[in-house]
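Practice problem: predict the structure.
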Amino acid sequence: MQLLYLLNYSIRMINHYSIKDLERITGIKAHTIRIWEKRYNIVEPKRSDTNIRNYCDHDLKRLLNISVLVKNGYKISHIAELPDRELCQKVLEINNVNSSSYSGQIESMIVAMIDLDEIKFEKVLNSSIIKHGIESTLFDVVYPLLTRIGILWQIGTITPAQEHFISNLIRQKIYAAIDGLSTEPVQEHKTFLLILPEWELHDMGLLVYNYLIRKKGHKTIFLGQGIPLQDVAAVKEQTLPDAIITSFSAHAESEEMLNYLKELNNIFPGLPIYVGGIQQEKLCSELPPNVQKVATALNFRDKVLNNY
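Answer:
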């Protein structure tokens, strides 16, 4: 299943976008994009033989910048004719001046991802960490960014290289944040086992959970990706965790995810199992009573972790 998923993903046309793709990525309604095209000529999509619009990376980046400016009070009539350099400059000004708004930082990092521009990405992310701290940056910048990247991955509009480029840079920051925490757990600490199913390709969300748990003073056993469940049973022989955390982000059938959770429950009967990731929404009411879905890492921090 994992190989088939990667093959299906890799053969997609990556640098071309439908108008629906642009709507999901930029947050600008397709109807609005059409009006802006007709009235202001903000982008010039190519059209297929059947008159279907096709957009390129340049169109996407221009609309991302326009989206930031419109959300910050600029009138489309005033910015539609601006060249790309001036649009980028105004977005940078918003990032530097309006420290309470994170949308410009997120859009800038998406553009940096598309351009594979590490310097620009590091500059924006480090600026946020200095101003707001690592945890606020995680929830207000990185987490929404990961959500957007998840959408981009799901609809096949970024390459594996672009996704891995940005994910590895973020992963380095999270590891650095974890390394900066105390290594001594609190006296009444709990032990959390963090694990992903074998088909899952993304461990970013699990790393955020790892950071939050460790910051709270608890112990983690981070197994991450690619561990067969039969090997997980060995953990039980050495130490019994107090709770288990897993995450489903890559596409999987609900039955496949449910079977995975039931097998986890068979290995660790009755232990609380928390399930994050965008795919957990597909799980139905047949879940074992000890399994709890977690919508976001913020929910986990505020509603779950506070009980430990």
